[in-house]
Write a structure and sequence with these properties.
This protein is of the alpha+beta class and 967 residues long. Helices cover 23% and strands 37% of the residues. It has 13 helices and 65 strands. The strands form 17 sheets. The chain has a 5-stranded antiparallel β-sheet. The chain has a 4-stranded antiparallel β-sheet with strand order 2-29-28-27. Strands 3-4-5-6 form a 4-stranded antiparallel β-sheet, with no helix packed on it. Helix 6 packs across helix 11 and helix 11 packs across helix 12. It is elongated.
Length: 967
Amino acid sequence: MKNNTFRYFITCFAFLLLSIGLFANDIQSIGVPYVQNYPKSSYLSGNQNWSIAKDKNGLMYFGNAEGLLTYDGKYWQQYKMPNRQIVRSVATGSDGTIYTGSFGEFGYWSYKNKQLTYNSLVKLIPKPYQLSDEIWKIYVDGKRILFQSFSTIYLYENKKVVVLKAPNAFLFLHQANQKLFAEVLGKGLFELKGRNFVPLAGSEILGNTGILSILPYKNNSFIIGTSKNGLFIYDGQSFTPLNSPANWFLKTYQLNNGVRILDKYYAYGTILNGLIIIDENGKVVQRINKSSGLQNNTILSLYADNEQNLWAGLDNGIDRIELNSPLYFYFDKAGQFGTVYSSLIVKNKIYLGTNQGLFWSPWIPENGNLFNSFDFKLIPNSQGQVWDLSEIDNQLICGHNDGTFNIVGDRMEKISTISGGWTIKKLNSNPNYLIQGTYTGLVIFVKDAAGNWKFSHKITGFGEPSRYVEQDSKGDIWVSHAYKGLYKLTLSADLKKVTSIKYFDEKNGLPSNFNINIFNVENKIIFSSDSGFLTYDEIDNSFKPYESLNKNIGSFYASNKIINAGLKKYWFINHGKMSLVNLTEPGKIAIDSSRFSILDGRMVQYYENISQISSKIYLISVDDGFVIYNTTNTENKAQTLKLPSVLIRKVEDITDKYSTLTENGSSEEAIEIPFSRNNIRISFSLPYYRQSKIKFQYYLEGYSKQWSDWSSATQKDFTNLSRGTYVFKVRAKINEGSISEITSFEFVVLPPWYGSNWAIAFYALIGVVALIAGKRIYEAKLNKDQQAISLKLQAEKEEFVKKEAEANEKQIIKLRTEKLQAELASKNRELANSAMSLVYKNELLQKLSEEMTKLKDENGKKLSEDQLRKLQKVIDDGMNDERDWNLFESSFNEAHESFFKKLKANHPDLVPNDLKLCAYLHMNMSSKEMASLLNISLRGVEIRRYRLRKKLEVPHDKNLVEFLMEL
């Protein structure tokens, strides 16, 4: 027993060391790195891609069957050769110049009229040596550019072309460690020194099948790859075959090209079966072909860039292989084991639980044959749906549709017959028990005498499907199912039955009864929902949003699953999208989701599974295989990552129809835009090709007020720009972390024709003329206005004098009127007094007349009639004295001079007595007073008034006094 235990620990320790050593390498041997495919439909050019290069700005160039292709990480662009030839070779100089070669043609590309234009160098070839075949290789050697065809090497230097010939035709020219080598058919390998070819002794060992690759090797030697004779080492003196497992592969599938990667690995492309990667000892560490991600098995060209990308030009398409990637893939292209629901590595074996059963394979191949590193086999009697794989106390337990099994190697033993083991874990309150959620409730497992887990009993009193099971700090069991809701169970002390069931729904604060899952995060039970994470409030028996978490994890607040990643890290999975959330630093939540975007939608939804192999390595189950995630590579990459600068690409005029202003806004050529075409579109990109989330931020100096928000958009439109100089600034951000330097692009919007310098000069001239004319017009107008003002002042003065005179006259008239009114009032008073005097006199005489009849003489007798008559006559004469009337009439005419005139003019038939009556009525005298003045009775007065109305024709509704007063 002790020996077995010892062997077990030794095996585990060896496996751990092997795993650490394996994943510490830059290139892993398990699975394949991420391969990004660029099919013909994406770059819209020819199938075949014969050569690859990259310039100093990070722009990629491809020699394509239909011309030269460029790629900047976002936009593809095709450029045709003069006669539409195939571009067989492409190279870039340190100054950024691009060189290409094709049939009967070679030259360089430069920007003319703001467009990439081809410049032929063929015209510089001496006449006897005109080019009549393909240019297959181009190398930049300092200031020399070498163009190689099968018959000749053309050396371009100082704007001259020199022809280099060998005894026989060439196969290919190679450059390694600043040396140039060429294979001369039938003669062996030569080194080009200066302009001379020096044969290398012993090269006949390489055979005559073709030398297709010469690369730098350790200790200043070279590794040589031949078409069908394998690999050789050349130390500068002799050639030695490299004893490598790769030789058989390269001979069988025909090596075609090679490239050194990461300074210690070698990638070789073949004609028939993709590519392999070997280390310096010849050990194969990777094989990548169509079955593992390539679009095509024929590798026409290979190129390793400075960002640990391996580019492959294929017979049909372009692929990019992400070296030193944190993610390595294993796909079941043949459909051998179906959809993976769970995966786990236990005791140097990898297990895959799928919808078809449980499969296993050695994790580290026993025969060292990494071409077929996994040989998955179905464990007998495991057919059916596997839900869960868990290693608990060194025992592998499989939750299956048909029950629960104990897995030992490639055998399985049923330990429970209860169907549907979804999840199993130790009870927090008692680690000697396991609790399992099944189709029909909860099951308890205990250890037997041998220390193996075995079925104990099914918990009674609860039979609902139990997809998620967690125990809280009080020992209560929380159970949820996607469609059955959420339960809180209290178990009996012996764990055999449920003593209390609480069901929760919307009444308790849940957003719905569906998709409520339970997870334990840092010993805290939290609940997931489509509306965000929730926590349970024991006091008021309700669920409340977990704001401190929801607000800090972005879109992952609606995650449907959480998986413990160890060391206070957790996988949050939001309906197919995943992120790694780090809670290590108190009060801070770090989220890493960008690097996992290539896995979006590839995991089995609601049954996502991620297993931790070590503190830095994880096994991720995907639909058709699994993915290895190694955080070591991520940490190393983060330390060395330096972003390239953003490239300003095409600048277009979008005013009415689209036209290109420049194909390269990053060039130093000035861009001037007519005012009438002041609507432009600026395209930009970051030449960073590894899988990542790239966002941009821009600012147009002279137009914008502040930097834009970060966005994945790679172009921006600016419309109705006013005249002036603008500077467009843009920068990029990778995975919400590293930010590139600012790239600037300056352009000028010209003024409109009416705002040009000539127009401004014309305006200035017109302005001067206008000023002179204006001055003269102003002076003339000033004189005219002065005269007008003088005349106006004179007129105003006269008007003022006139008004003042009129005012004085009015004042005089007013005074006169007041005086006349006063005199009239006085005369009226006099007239009234005179009239009253007459009335008083007549009344007195009347009284005398009345008293006179009563007089008696001394004898007591009445006076005689004669005496009375005489006296009465005197009285009557006094009462009818015309002098009184004349005096009254004179006074009345003075007060009312036009009264009698109007009255006589309108009524000539009036007699003097009528006129008297009219005068008395005009003065508004009473009938009694008029009777006294007229010496008649009151009855007589009324009769006269009546007769007068008739003569005057006074209307019936008109008062006679009013009529006369209005006259």
